[in-house]
User: Fold this.
Amino acid sequence: MNAPSPSTGLTSLRRAAILASGILSTTLYFTTILVTSTVLPQIQGTMSATADEVSWIVTFNILAIAIATPMAGWLAARFGRRTVMVTCIAGLSFSTLMCGLAQSLEALIFWRIVQGAIGAPTVPLAQSIMLDIFPREQHRFVMSLNGMGVILGPIIGPTLAGRLAEDMSWRWAFFMLVPVSLISFIGLYFALPRDQKPAPIGFDWIGFLSLSTAIGCLQYVLSRGQRLDWFESQQIVAFLAVAVLAFYVFIAHSLTAERPFLNLKLLTDRNLALGLTLVAFFGMLSFTPMVLLPTLLRQYAGFPDALIGQVIGARGLGGLAGFFIAMWSEKLDPRLSMALGFLALTISGIWLMTINLDVTPFELALNGMLQGTCIGLLFVPLSIITFSGIDPRYRAEALGVFHLLRNLASSLFISISVAEVVRSTGINYARMVELINPFNPSLMLPWVVGNWNGETNAGLARLSREITRQSAMIAYLNAFGLFTVVAAIAIPVALMFKRPRPAAAVAAIQAAGTTAPRSTPEERSLPPAEPTRKAAAE
Assistant:
């Protein structure tokens, strides 16, 4: 029963160990992204940070992931998959430990950037390894198990982190992941076969560095713009100018280079271009509520950390349900599935726009489950239809752009939403306090004033805190309004795709499971395959 596989030379026990370690690394990776969502309010209090500053813990982590993910194929080809996987898991373990030991906000953000960048290659490489060591007839089963790891992270991470943060400290949200990462490291180190001698291949450093610079500067502008009064600040103007210049260099270089970092000519495929647009909307909607809700619930609604963790974890349960629904509904038109998914997200956004500070945890958990179900339901048909018309030689590169835009849009939209919360809170507070004065006739009515007392310092302080709470609540409703608008705009975009052919859909499912690099530089320079006349008619 433990005989070596004729295709890989690995015993069934060793393949099972690789599978278990790979799933564990995938679960760990997605847990590290989401684990901070529950403990953000506690970190904000410990570090004496503002709402927009503490959001950098999430946004810069996602940004680092977006930049580093397209490098996975080159790293594997240059240094070997085993070397890269083991090194990344070791680095992920160390950076997670340092996040828990950080003594300042700057240090925590730095180690979160390291954590995101060094962990980014693990997911595509783990998928690629699993598809290589298992026979083709087992690929669907293996990818289903790996998908369970993707779903378990959002359930276990926030829930357990909230409980540990309430009983001990937010630092244990990171410490709890270190033993898990060490187990994954040991499993991969001893189970993965040795790499063959890597072949030296080129890498487009100009394209990579120019794109990274543009993204990083734009993220800084969106994160600090509200605090620095946007274009009134020379710092913001300077960073925006650098972002524009770097992006121009990236576009010009990508259109003229022989083997660019990202091949923009792939965008001539209609479904790919629409898919990349839609995955940006998908990224905007994926993580934003999990960043906004914990601060709202902890600071203004008085929820404990453990309860916030359960509310966030309910979204993961919804994602699990969406995953199974997507498997059951694979024969449906993916355009219809995506449109219904974004419609349900729009409804969940409208629902969030109706809550107040007396909202119950049960209501928020139901809303989170609805969002999670939509997120889980959307990703499969979106992956299928996006890559349905791409030549197999270019799917790996297109998949890199796919994940890049998803993470980039998520990071930028979180910054925009947090900036809106900060802006609206200040405006709402200023307008409300104008009404608190002795000349307001409404304040002379007992049923209007109630128990509020504006004639003493203590009474004014309590009144100010209540105005702050209500101002913030209105600001968060505005941010949820942005979420709703994005979800609504995505609905007609989902209906603009060409329906994929069945054979192309099957190939697209397989392509979404790996990001292995193309075998030769010559293949990178070939033009995309021309669509057939039948496909064009469809």
